[in-house]
Amino acid sequence: MSNNVILDIDAILTNPEKHIIVCTGSGGVGKTTTAAALGLRAAELGRNVCVLTIDPARRLAQAMGLTELDNTPRSVPGITNGSLSAMMLDMKRTFDEVVESHSDPERAEQILSNPFYQALSSSFAGTQEYMAMEKLGQLRAQSQWDLIIVDTPPSRNALDFLDAPARLGSFLDGRLIRIITAPARGAGRGIGRIAALSFGIFTNVLSKLLGAQVLADVGNFVADIDTTFGGFRERADATYALLKDSGTEFIVVAAPERDALREAAYFVERLNQDSMPLGGLILNRVQEVPETGLTQDQVLAAAQKLTAEGRGPLSAALLELHAQRMEIKERQKHLAMRFTAAHPNVAVQPIPAMAQDVHDLDGLREIGTALANQSINW
Amino acid sequence: MQIWPNATLHVVTGKGGTGKTTIAAALAIALAKNGHRTILMEVEGRQGIAQLFDTPPLPYEERKIAVAPGGGEVWALAVDTEDALLDYLEMFYKLRRAGSALSKMGAVDFATTIAPGLRDVLLTGKACEVVKRKEKKLDNAYDYVILDAPPTGRITRFLNVNGEVSGLAKVGPIKSHADSVMSVIASEQTAIHLVTLLEEMPVQETLDGVAELEASGLPVGAIFVNMTRPPQLDASQRVMAIAGQLPRSEIEREISQSGLTASNQLIDALLMEASDHAERVNLEISELERLEERGLPIFTLPLLPSGIDLGGLYELSAIMSASGIGGE
After folding, report:
1. In chain A, what are the helix, strand and coil shares in percent, each to the nearest 5?
2. Which of B7, B22, B25, B207 has the greatest number of CB atoms lying within 10 Å of its CB?
3. What is the pTM of this model?
């Protein structure tokens, strides 16, 4: 590679100043596995680690030999040196707990049974990200772990992890929701007559679309929340500040494919823009090809010669396989170099594709070793 | 298309990273073959179609983006929730102007935020409106509508709009809109396809997705297995490759005949890659067997070493055609 920036994973994992590592990237690039492998490696380097995963498929549990992942950190057996716990976020339960801890039992019951709250806590866009942040804040506040590794939700877009909580917070705290859900209170105050008229139309259209009951539910929810806690936006901002702290490190995970790298590039640019600490880019599932000193054309020509002469079908097949892998490697290298050309200060760590899926701690250890060593030479 | 004789709407879903947009696009080309008109729709605001076809970002407007072998046309549409809501308001209430004013105030965003089910009804509703043009024999009708849908984890909720809306509105216009959407989606006019890789986790997610869709009475079409590596070695060669028992001296002799120098470095590399390839192929075969147990049609598409570009899309669509998709 043209740049000399190297991702020294062990230096990050053993740095006592680092307390949070966020693994982010688009879906299907191996974020969860990477988070688990980093957690295991950090634990075996002596840290007390908690891995917070959000993915609904219980992959982490499978790989870590845990039978239960239920919104509470569970200790992973078989770790030498430090300690490792893992948990899976249950967003509804996390939200319920926030409500319960901030209101008296009667009020909590009222909120929990509100249909709008139920929709909000189980299916809302952004709730998962919001609750992941909330949980991260809670875990950080407990002093049991000195390193928390977060696997971000499988969002449509990796930036959602940063933006969704604040967006949802602003929405819940926002003026619009208050005015619309309490037209009698809000219509005349603070906004002009024309705006009030538009809101009237809007409320009318909304009632047509959704039914008046929905607006009433939202109104009750807002009223209940107001008298207990509130400041959704404030809570989201507080966790966001935690992410900007120098104790945090972001690790962007990608696969050597165009879309995944494009998404990674957006994320890197955003982290730069917000001066957030970026450790580097982990490029998963990279095709490894042993060096033979031959070009792809030479290998292909040899395979074709054997096939044309009707000799050595096995060797011809092996040569073709080799040529195919060289082509894949070249394409991946090219994509990675384009990324590096645009982001020369970002360390890129390629991880070889494994022939088998990860099933157990040994598989995670193997990935951890690959993360810490430069095994692919581009 | 004989495999799903009455399906106009082809919904394509898949776990992230499996190439669902690629498969949806190749399917749109394959179905357009021999003079058909198809439309490829996306609903997640990602502009994945524009990137794939290397065109500028798509507006909320139907545009022709490609041609298919035998004089077919592929159109594309990036559906935007806000515009879909304005369409809806116009269609049912003649409220487009009021609607635009509201959207400027952020009100549309508000409505779809407090009622995420509303968003899904609007998006699926737009797809169904396009599907229904065919029955009505409208000029702007398409033979097939291919929907690049949200990923497997969210697909049932996305399509099962009735379930989503009933928590929201028991009666009223949105409820009847949802009913009309369901009358298309839960019928033989629709086929829902799942894209997967032959790896443990995507296969598991696919099987879970199929079970979920079936439990909700939604019509599953086929499984598209993407990015497979065609086996270069047969079963007995794979056993030998993994055990390190491929005939080294024979390979050395053949390689020297091929015009290359049979260095130890080269032979070691070939044997190592053979073993790695054999392991990978064996894994793919056992994952494929798990999928086959479901008894659904399975279409297998290879990993293209050169990656996916426009040429690659046509290559994949030709493989689909050869497997009996479209083209009648």
Report:
1. 55, 10, 30
2. B25
3. 0.84
